[in-house]
Amino acid sequence: MKNIAILGSTGSIGTQTLDVIRDNKQLFRAFMITAHSNAYLLIQQALEFVPAYAIICDETKYSEIKEALAHLPITVLAGYEAIKEHVTHLDIDVVLTAMVGFAGLEPTINAIKAGKDIALANKETLVVAGDMVTALAKEHNVKILPVDSEHSAIFQCLAGEQDNAIEKIILTASGGPFRGKSVAFLADVTREHALKHPNWVMGAKITIDSASLMNKGLEVIEARWLFDLRPDQIEVVVHPQSIIHSLVQFEDGSIKAQMGLPDMKLPIQYALTYPQRVKTNFKRFNFADYRSLTFEQPDMDTFRNLKLAFEAMKKGGNMPCIINAANEVAVAAFLKNEIGFLAMSDLIETCMQQIPFVKEPTLQDYLNTDKETRIFAQNLIQRMPLKA
Ligand code: NDP
Ligand code: MG
């Protein structure tokens, strides 16, 4: 029986993780669940799973949760600091990081230092500080198991292979709702358009990132650290059906791909049961439903975020941290209709040019860069004409 801490249990990945736990009660216990502010859902989850801990970031929701769970043996806590502290609890075996954005970094670092294996959905953690996080994981002998479907695919392709046999990896991208569209078209798209992903239902931030191809950019950087690759070993191919989840090319020229219907429960479960596979009743892929699987090159001139992410990866230092923070601010502003779709890339590029570069950042440098970039980006937005 593994005790799982789910950071961000009320989100898209978090709720699907609880689905996996519900289906495998003999294997897993939800030991800790956390939310940012969704007290209602956190209470429902706590009533069903009776975790040892239920933690809410938003302190104003504390008494409501405490009262609702008073009859159960659950420790209710509030505040981000409480998550950072209790994620190190002795009884936790695996921490599944499903919170969104930079907020995932510090709890993940604390969990690694406490020797917890990480099932990593929160890609921003590796984008921001992949060098530090992977070095820490090595030092503390903990596994970082990918939950992101592309990285899970690569991880599955690598089973039984030697690390140094990889020539390159190829991440597949669906292309999102605006695949094939022009810059002129993108200038007028709204948040409602961007929130409709063709193949996946996900949280709002990653859905916008998928529409702008920033999600793929973040995944490129995530892959670099997860699989210890050079930037020139990572490629992206657009595959609109999202059936091949990614590929590895080995030095003898052989290519392995991992396939299946798009369903995040599979990579979530694999990260939790690894190295075992456990039987599921998930819907199976049927060739009769797919007459063809197609591939095309990503259009990085139209979807500039992907190009910017490649540049940031090559530059290294705090540059990926800068693009991550700028992107978080840009996406939040786009979701509030404060800026247009194309302005997101302009904002990120300006931050990359203006925020001081640090070649070998410490954790404090990353925290400073994140803060500074957010303030700078927020100021830029005030000066941007709507739909710039
Ligand atoms: P959601 O927005 O659906 O959920 C985010 C979760 O994190 C919620 O539980 C939310 O709480 C909590 N949260 C949000 N902000 C904070 C914060 N500042 N501090 C603490 N907790 C916070 O996101 P997703 O589930 O879609 O994505 C989670 C992560 O997984 C992201 O990093 C994403 O890139 C990655 N991922 C997601 C995939 C997907 O299919 N959804 C696929 C691959 C990776 P509350 O509900 O209270 O707001
Ligand atoms: Mg992905």
Automatic annotation (TrEMBL):
Annotated residues that bind 1-deoxy-D-xylulose 5-phosphate are located at K123, S149, E150, S174, H197, S210, N215, K216, E219
Stretches assigned to the 1-deoxy-D-xylulose 5-phosphate reductoisomerase C-terminal domain:
144-227
Alphabetical GO biological process terms: isopentenyl diphosphate biosynthetic process, methylerythritol 4-phosphate pathway involved in terpenoid biosynthetic process
Query: Where do the annotations place NADPH binding?
Result: T10, G11, S12, I13, N38, N122, E124, G203
| Limits of the DXP reductoisomerase C-terminal domain | 259-374
Q: Does the keyword Iron-sulfur apply?
A: no
The pathway it acts in is: Isoprenoid biosynthesis; isopentenyl diphosphate biosynthesis via DXP pathway; isopentenyl diphosphate from 1-deoxy-D-xylulose 5-phosphate: step 1/6
GO MF term (any one): manganese ion binding
Q: What is its EC number?
A: 1.1.1.267
Q: Which UniProt keywords apply?
A: Isomerase, Isoprene biosynthesis, Magnesium, Manganese, Metal-binding, NADP, Oxidoreductase
What cofactor does its activity depend on? Answer: Mg(2+); Mn(2+)
Give residues annotated as binding Mn(2+). Answer: D148, E150, E219
SUPFAM superfamilies per UniProt: 1-deoxy-D-xylulose-5-phosphate reductoisomerase, C-terminal domain, Glyceraldehyde-3-phosphate dehydrogenase-like, C-terminal domain, NAD(P)-binding Rossmann-fold domains
Has UniProt tagged this entry with the keyword Transmembrane helix?
A: no
Q: Which domain of life is it from?
A: Bacteria
Q: Which family is annotated?
A: Belongs to the DXR family.
Question: What HAMAP family is this protein classified in?
Answer: DXP_reductoisom
Matching NCBIfam families: Dxr, PRK12464.1
Its recorded name reads 1-deoxy-D-xylulose 5-phosphate reductoisomerase
Q: Which organism is it from?
A: Mucilaginibacter achroorhodeus
